[in-house]
Amino acid sequence: MKLDSNNHSVFLMYYHLVLVVKYRRKVIDDTISNYAKDKFVSLTEKYNITLVEWNHDIDHIHILFKAQPNSELSKFINAYKSASSRLIKKDFPHVRKKLWNEMFWSRSFCLLTTGGSPIEVVKKYIKSQGIK
Protein backbone atom coordinates (compact mmCIF):
# COMPACT_ATOMS: atom_id res chain seq x y z
CA MET A 1 0.00 0.00 0.00
CA LYS A 2 1.39 3.38 -1.05
CA LEU A 3 0.79 6.16 1.47
CA ASP A 4 0.41 9.85 0.66
CA SER A 5 2.49 12.44 2.45
CA ASN A 6 3.03 16.14 2.87
CA ASN A 7 5.63 18.11 4.84
CA HIS A 8 4.59 16.84 8.26
CA SER A 9 2.50 13.71 7.90
CA VAL A 10 1.89 10.42 6.17
CA PHE A 11 -1.71 9.44 5.46
CA LEU A 12 -4.16 7.57 3.28
CA MET A 13 -7.62 9.11 3.41
CA TYR A 14 -10.28 7.90 0.98
CA TYR A 15 -13.88 9.08 1.14
CA HIS A 16 -17.04 7.92 -0.59
CA LEU A 17 -19.46 10.81 -1.13
CA VAL A 18 -23.06 10.37 -2.28
CA LEU A 19 -25.03 13.42 -3.41
CA VAL A 20 -28.73 13.10 -4.14
CA VAL A 21 -30.87 15.34 -6.33
CA LYS A 22 -33.55 17.14 -4.32
CA TYR A 23 -36.64 14.93 -4.00
CA ARG A 24 -34.80 12.26 -6.01
CA ARG A 25 -35.77 13.97 -9.25
CA LYS A 26 -34.57 11.89 -12.19
CA VAL A 27 -32.49 14.49 -14.03
CA ILE A 28 -28.92 13.19 -14.18
CA ASP A 29 -27.80 11.83 -17.53
CA ASP A 30 -24.26 11.30 -18.83
CA THR A 31 -23.98 14.90 -20.03
CA ILE A 32 -24.99 16.42 -16.70
CA SER A 33 -22.84 13.91 -14.81
CA ASN A 34 -19.77 14.78 -16.88
CA TYR A 35 -20.47 18.48 -16.41
CA ALA A 36 -20.83 18.02 -12.63
CA LYS A 37 -17.62 15.96 -12.60
CA ASP A 38 -15.71 18.73 -14.38
CA LYS A 39 -16.93 21.24 -11.79
CA PHE A 40 -15.87 18.86 -9.00
CA VAL A 41 -12.36 18.51 -10.44
CA SER A 42 -12.03 22.28 -10.91
CA LEU A 43 -12.48 22.80 -7.13
CA THR A 44 -10.29 19.96 -5.88
CA GLU A 45 -6.85 21.59 -5.98
CA LYS A 46 -7.84 24.42 -3.66
CA TYR A 47 -8.94 21.86 -1.03
CA ASN A 48 -6.15 19.27 -1.48
CA ILE A 49 -8.58 16.69 -2.84
CA THR A 50 -8.08 14.21 -5.68
CA LEU A 51 -10.89 12.52 -7.61
CA VAL A 52 -10.45 8.73 -7.80
CA GLU A 53 -13.77 7.43 -9.17
CA TRP A 54 -17.06 8.96 -10.31
CA ASN A 55 -20.36 7.51 -11.45
CA HIS A 56 -24.03 8.39 -11.41
CA ASP A 57 -27.54 7.05 -11.47
CA ILE A 58 -30.50 9.13 -12.67
CA ASP A 59 -31.05 10.75 -9.26
CA HIS A 60 -27.70 10.69 -7.45
CA ILE A 61 -23.94 10.57 -7.89
CA HIS A 62 -21.20 8.54 -6.23
CA ILE A 63 -17.74 10.04 -5.80
CA LEU A 64 -14.62 8.38 -4.46
CA PHE A 65 -11.90 10.87 -3.59
CA LYS A 66 -8.69 11.18 -1.63
CA ALA A 67 -8.07 14.01 0.80
CA GLN A 68 -5.30 15.30 3.01
CA PRO A 69 -5.42 15.95 6.75
CA ASN A 70 -5.79 19.69 6.10
CA SER A 71 -8.66 19.29 3.61
CA GLU A 72 -11.77 21.09 4.83
CA LEU A 73 -14.30 18.51 3.70
CA SER A 74 -17.54 20.20 4.75
CA LYS A 75 -16.45 23.51 3.21
CA PHE A 76 -15.46 21.74 0.01
CA ILE A 77 -18.72 19.78 -0.23
CA ASN A 78 -20.83 22.87 0.42
CA ALA A 79 -18.85 24.92 -2.10
CA TYR A 80 -19.20 22.17 -4.68
CA LYS A 81 -22.92 21.68 -4.12
CA SER A 82 -23.59 25.42 -4.32
CA ALA A 83 -21.49 26.06 -7.44
CA SER A 84 -22.57 22.95 -9.33
CA SER A 85 -26.25 23.55 -8.54
CA ARG A 86 -26.09 27.11 -9.82
CA LEU A 87 -24.16 26.17 -12.97
CA ILE A 88 -26.22 23.08 -13.84
CA LYS A 89 -29.43 25.10 -13.61
CA LYS A 90 -27.90 27.86 -15.72
CA ASP A 91 -26.42 25.62 -18.44
CA PHE A 92 -29.21 23.00 -18.50
CA PRO A 93 -32.41 25.06 -18.23
CA HIS A 94 -34.63 22.03 -18.90
CA VAL A 95 -33.57 20.67 -15.48
CA ARG A 96 -35.19 23.63 -13.68
CA LYS A 97 -38.64 22.45 -14.76
CA LYS A 98 -38.19 19.23 -12.79
CA LEU A 99 -36.90 20.85 -9.60
CA TRP A 100 -38.75 22.26 -6.64
CA ASN A 101 -37.74 25.64 -5.19
CA GLU A 102 -34.77 25.93 -7.52
CA MET A 103 -32.65 23.54 -5.43
CA PHE A 104 -30.68 20.93 -7.33
CA TRP A 105 -29.06 18.91 -4.54
CA SER A 106 -30.69 17.63 -1.40
CA ARG A 107 -29.53 19.52 1.71
CA SER A 108 -27.97 16.40 3.16
CA PHE A 109 -25.18 14.24 1.84
CA CYS A 110 -23.60 10.92 2.71
CA LEU A 111 -19.85 10.89 3.37
CA LEU A 112 -18.19 7.61 4.29
CA THR A 113 -14.62 6.79 5.09
CA THR A 114 -13.44 3.73 3.25
CA GLY A 115 -10.84 2.54 5.73
CA GLY A 116 -12.55 -0.77 6.47
CA SER A 117 -13.02 -1.80 2.86
CA PRO A 118 -10.43 -2.49 0.19
CA ILE A 119 -10.44 0.48 -2.16
CA GLU A 120 -10.91 -1.76 -5.21
CA VAL A 121 -14.20 -3.02 -3.72
CA VAL A 122 -15.45 0.56 -3.31
CA LYS A 123 -14.33 1.47 -6.85
CA LYS A 124 -16.14 -1.58 -8.25
CA TYR A 125 -19.31 -0.62 -6.34
CA ILE A 126 -19.21 2.95 -7.67
CA LYS A 127 -18.59 1.75 -11.25
CA SER A 128 -21.65 -0.52 -11.00
CA GLN A 129 -24.05 2.34 -10.15
CA GLY A 130 -26.78 3.00 -12.66
CA ILE A 131 -26.37 -0.43 -14.25
CA LYS A 132 -29.56 -2.43 -14.16
From TrEMBL:
<dbReference type="InterPro" id="IPR002686">
    <property type="entry name" value="Transposase_17"/>
</dbReference>
<dbReference type="Pfam" id="PF01797">
    <property type="entry name" value="Y1_Tnp"/>
</dbReference>
<protein>
    <submittedName>
        <fullName>IS200/IS605 family transposase</fullName>
    </submittedName>
</protein>
<feature type="domain" description="Transposase IS200-like">
    <location>
        <begin position="10"/>
        <end position="129"/>
    </location>
</feature>
<dbReference type="InterPro" id="IPR036515">
    <property type="entry name" value="Transposase_17_sf"/>
</dbReference>
